[in-house]
Amino acid sequence: MNRPAKPKNHRGRTGPVAQVSSPVQDFQIKRRNLPHIQKPGRIYFLTWRCRQGEFLAFGDRDLVLAALLHYNEHKWKVYTAVILPDHVHVLAQPLPHPDGGVYNLAEIVHSVKRFSVYQINKRRGANGSIWQDERYDRIVRDEAEFLEKWDYIRNNPVKGGLATRPEEYPWLFERA
């Protein structure tokens, strides 16, 4: 798969701006509208959606995929991901943090969303968020669920009528 070129951020660098991170050391639950559970060493199925009335054009999807893969193999391991016109699915695992624990999943996703909206707004000549505030996340419990989520992500563009085969969809990333 050809990956889109990495866009430059507002500081002229490629990818999201590095933040001071707070590693997750132990089991942790945070709640807003949805519960967000983090446990070091676990794999997550994630979904976040566009705000009502917002859709991602082809070029927007390139930017989101590039932002999502920016921290791949550095802060998280992305197993598979798909960028659809109105939402994103990811199967990923936060990686070990140099200070112990693992990188904070909420901070990674926030960085991807913030950077992608900045790039999309710049491209569109617009402003404001395109993403809903919260995300859905679920700890993958076993290998069977991992494979089920992978298959779900992989086939989402086909189910949505965006491709006849998963391999044809340009905004599908699958780890070799």
Structure explained in plain terms:
- This protein has 176 residues and is an alpha+beta fold.
- It has three helices and seven strands.
- It has helices spanning 58-70, 105-124, 143-159, and strands at residues 28-31, 35-38, 44-49, 76-83, 87-94, 136-139, 172-174.
- The longest helix is centred in the middle third of the chain and has 20 residues, at 105-124.
Brief summary:
The chain has helices spanning 58-70, 105-124, 143-159, and strands at 28-31, 35-38, 44-49, 76-83, 87-94, 136-139, 172-174. The protein is of the alpha+beta class.
Number of strand elements = 7
User: Secondary-structure element sequence?
Assistant: EEEHEEHEHE
Strand fraction: 15-25%
Q: Going across the major beta sheet, what is the strand order?
A: 6-3-5-4-7
Helical segment count: 3
Instruction: Provide the residue-averaged pLDDT.
Output: 88
The secondary structure category is alpha+beta
Low-confidence stretches: none
Gyration radius from CA atoms, angstroms: 16 Å
How are the SSEs ordered, and which strands pair?
Blueprint lengths: L27 E4 L3 E4 L5 E6 L8 H13 L5 E8 L3 E8 L10 H20 L11 E4 L3 H17 L12 E3 L2
Antiparallel strand pairs: 1-2, 3-5, 3-6, 4-5, 4-7
Helix pairs in contact: 1-2
